[in-house]
Amino acid sequence: MYVVIRAGTGSIRFWLASIGWRRYRLVTVVETFQIIIVVIVILIIIALSIKIASQWQRAVILRLGRFIGIRGPGLFILIPFIDRIAYLIDLRVNTTEFKAEKTITKDTVPVDVDAVLFWKVLDPQKAALEVVNYNQAISWAAQTALREVIGKSELAEILEGRAKLDVELQKVISGRTNQWGVNVDSVEIRDVVIPEGLQNAMSMQAQAERERQARVILGESEKLIAGKFKEAADIYENNPHAMHLRAMNMLYEGLKAKENSVIVLVPASVLDTMALGNVMGVTAMANSLLPEKTKKGTPSTEKGTE
Are 111 and 180 contained in the same domain? Predict the structure, then answer.
């Protein structure tokens, strides 16, 4: 009986010891799992808290829907699930292409104008809070300003005075975008397209204008030449010796122009001025100036002269 009791008591003790070991092992596993979960949660919170903005970026931070400030560039920390980045704004210079199609000018000419806008954000807070989408707003503001400026200008002003239109466009667009914290650096008109029929008419007009200018210049030149001739005539009229020298020079130039020149036509008044006598004397003088080869090739002329 005693042995049985002891055996039974030992079995109970062993059974109780095995139950305690299992409980201890179960508690250890649960605690380890809880520690792992806590570590993971902490890492997630840290990951959600740490943010980085590039050198050209600024982060607009809202806390429970309210603006609290601008963060960046570099590393900054947020409160997870409370703070959030509403906008990440680029401060570099941006370009926006815009156009005005079939816009009527002041002189009722339809034109298509392409332009480009250079702008950048100066105040990230205004760009985020004052307008829903500042990129789209800038594009629409530039397009409407371009149409407005074209409607106030004539076609000649658009084609010839692009620099002036660029300055005017910049002024109009800046007046609309400054309230959004955006500064317009410059506006450049790239191309102006007009109807083909009008292009042909303008080409004909330009050609006629060039011809008119050419005729005016020619007439002015003729007027100047006539004046110089009149001055020369007055000099020759009062100075017979000058006229004589001029006639001799004209005769010499005519003879030496071509080696085979034989006949020289000289006005009678020039012959009288030069006192050469008659045409035979002029011919003899011409023959004396010609080369020997030319003289041999004209025997009939020599005989006639004799």
Answer: yes
